[in-house]
Design goal:
It is a single chain. The protein is α+β, with helices and mostly antiparallel strands and 427 residues long. The chain has two domains: 14-176, Beta-Lactamase (2-Layer Sandwich), CATH 3.30.450; 283-423, Heat Shock Protein 90, CATH 3.30.565. 49% of the residues lie in helices and 17% in strands. The protein is built from eight helices and twelve strands. β3 (112-116) and β4 (119-125) form a beta hairpin.
Length: 427
């Protein structure tokens, strides 16, 4: 039978449903926790920006010029434990002084806070604007003290920070680790579901095989008893019927009836032989056998005019029981000839595929009903009016005794195709 066009879980589906629900709940919870952690990390970064801004305004509020390198280094060391990595003094988009290792990226006007993966970059004005000098009320002229004090021009300085708050980094790292653990857990859950499903499937298959074995054993015992008890009376009936047919050979009225009795006795005798062949499971007598000879004998027994055979191009020796394997082939060939229309011979090929010997029989009948590809090999299953349906069951047993397998399907061009596969044991 052809394989499925897409992958499907093997075995019962309930473990897969349970595993899928568990993974969905676990991943949903982890993603919610991760999102909360990332939001908390962002809040920590924003809060750290406010802390650094107040610390910078406090540290550099005195003076009007550019803070010295020593003061920047001292400010960096004082706030390094909080996550500060880089501090710089900016004027007109250019860095005048800096401390630490880092970058502010593209410098833009106005306060700016950028957050990337738990790292923040923040720029603000270095000093608050001074209040305007007091103006005298006498005609708007400045006081003498103000006039005597030299006024330095206030520079438009800004200060920028790059920082990584430790708490924000821990939150981000824990969120990533939690997501990884959840993914590994889901893989483990699916693995357990796969193993459990396969175990259940194997258990069901084993139970079905045991049940099949019990049925076949009971059927074999019954068939053996019936065959043994009926064989002797049937032989006597057949012999006397043949004598009767000889005595009434010239009687136009009685002769057809006597011949019919003989024919039915022969049919019952063949049925007894089939029953005995079916229940017989003795050891095979394997010998070095040419598969071409086995197939040729089966074709001759079936009728060469009804079968087109294609043989191996060269002689080979395979470990087969030639007599019993010929019987297996004959059963398939006879069925194929019976269902094929007149004038359309059955096709049979023998070939070597890898390490296996394969016999392929194709007929031109109606094919196999969908769903019956396995059922037709069960005992007493037949679609014909005559016969009891033991031929294919006997074929399967013989091939399985050889360590092989039998399969059947409807051919794409019409008719049924049977494959008898035997593993290589010869040269």
């Amino acid at each position: 039978m052809s394989g499925a066009s897409r992958w499907r879980p093997r075995g019962p589906w309930m473990p897969w449903v349970a595993a899928g629900l568990m993974c969905a709940v676990l991943l949903s919870a982890v993603l919610f926790i991760r999102r909360s952690a990332m939001e908390s990390s962002s809040l920590v970064v924003r809060g750290m920006a406010n802390v650094l801004m107040l610390a910078g305004l406090e540290a550099f509020r005195e003076g009007t010029g550019v803070p010295s390198q020593q003061s920047l280094d001292a400010f960096l060391e004082a706030n390094r434990e909080g996550g500060l990595r880089y501090v710089a003094i900016i004027e007109d988009g250019k860095v005048l002084e800096s401390a630490g290792e880092g970058s502010l990226g593209e410098i833009q006007d106005g306060p700016l806070l950028r957050i990337e993966a738990g790292r923040g970059r923040f720029i603000h004005r270095l000093r608050k604007p001074k209040p305007e000098a007091a103006v005298a009320t006498n005609g708007g002229e400045p006081s003498a003290v103000d006039a005597a004090t030299p006024q330095e021009p206030r520079r438009n300085l800004r200060i920028g920070y790059e920082y990584e708050p430790v708490t924000a980094l821990e939150l981000t790292d824990r969120a990533q680790r939690l997501l990884f653990i959840a993914a590994v857990s889901c893989v483990g859950i699916l693995g357990l579901a796969f193993a459990f499903s396969r175990s259940l499937a194997q258990r069901e298959a084993l139970a079905a095989e045991l049940e099949r074995g019990r049925r076949l054993a009971a059927l074999g015992t019954m068939s053996a008893v019936l065959a043994h008890e009926l064989r002797n009376p049937l032989a006597s009936l057949k012999g006397h019927a043949q004598l009767l047919a000889e005595r009434v050979e010239r009687d136009e009225v009685l002769r057809p009836k006597a011949d019919r009795i003989v024919g039915e006795a022969v049919r019952l005798e063949q049925l007894m032989n089939d029953l005995l062949s079916f229940v017989r499971s003795g050891e095979l007598r394997r010998t070095g056998t040419d598969p071409n000879e086995v197939l040729r004998a089966a074709v001759e027994a079936t009728g060469e005019a009804s079968v087109n055979a294609h043989y191996l191009p060269a002689h080979a020796q395979w470990e087969l029981d030639p007599g019993r394997f010929q019987q297996a082939l004959e059963n398939v060939l006879r069925n194929a000839v019976q269902v094929s229309p007149a004038g359309q011979p059955v096709e049979v090929d023998v070939a070597q595929e890898g390490q296996s010997l394969v016999f392929i029989v194709r007929d031109h009948g109606p094919g196999i009903p969908k769903g019956d590809e396995e059922r037709i090999f069960e005992p007493f299953v037949t679609g014909r009016l005559r016969g009891v349906g033991l031929g294919l069951a006997i074929t399967r047993r013989i091939v399985e005794l050889h360590g092989g397998s039998v399969s059947a399907k409807t051919h794409s061009g019409g008719g049924a195709e049977f494959r008898l596969t035997v593993p290589a044991r010869g040269t």
